[in-house]
Design brief:
Layout lengths: L2 E3 L2 E3 L2 H18 L2 E9 L2 H8 L1 H17 L6 E6 L2 E9 L3 H15 L2 E3 L2 E3 L3 E7 L6 H14 L3
Parallel strand pairs: 2-4
Antiparallel strand pairs: 1-2, 3-5, 3-8, 4-5, 6-7
Helix pairs in contact: 1-5, 2-3
């Protein structure tokens, strides 16, 4: 089950996949594109090692607020894993717009932030997936994660 903390939801893979599957079905009816952006925060373990878990938690909270500020009220923003955020663009008119949103997110995430009395620089790998005919929530999530991971190589 997806639970909300402010405007950013906390979810398990199972609840995110269920939400995605439901949204895919809804979007087929209204004939709109559904896009998923997965952001994988780089070096979170290093931040924990250098500054501690509390500071790493502040970093993740700050990232969640930044991501939420750049999305619309109709979008779903979840922290899907320890170092991963998922942004579901629910009312996108052109799949190319997802790339523009992803670039805005990348720039905003890359801005230094203050956490635990330190200035911390964060980067993230981003994967984008557009729902295709016959996709399940699992398909959409796996494709976005694969694309995010491929940027690391």
């Amino acid at each position: 089950m997806t639970t909300r903390s402010g405007n950013v939801a906390e979810s398990t893979d199972e609840s995110l996949i269920a939400d995605l599957s439901e949204l895919i079905a809804t979007h087929k009816v209204v004939q709109r594109d559904l896009c998923l952006i997965v952001l994988v925060v780089d070096d979170l373990d290093a931040i924990r090692g250098l500054y501690g878990s509390t500071t790493a938690g502040e970093v993740l909270g700050g990232l969640g607020r930044r991501i939420d500020a750049l999305t619309r009220g109709t979008d779903l923003v979840t922290r899907a894993d320890d170092n991963e955020y998922a942004v579901v663009l629910t009312t996108i008119s052109d799949p190319e717009d997802a790339q523009l949103v992803a670039e805005k997110l990348r720039r905003q995430i890359g801005e230094p932030m203050s956490a635990g009395g330190h200035e911390i620089h964060v980067t993230a790998h981003i994967g984008i997936s557009v729902a295709r005919e016959g996709d399940s929530g699992t398909d959409l999530l796996e494709r976005a994660r694969r694309r995010a991971r491929s940027q690391r190589a």
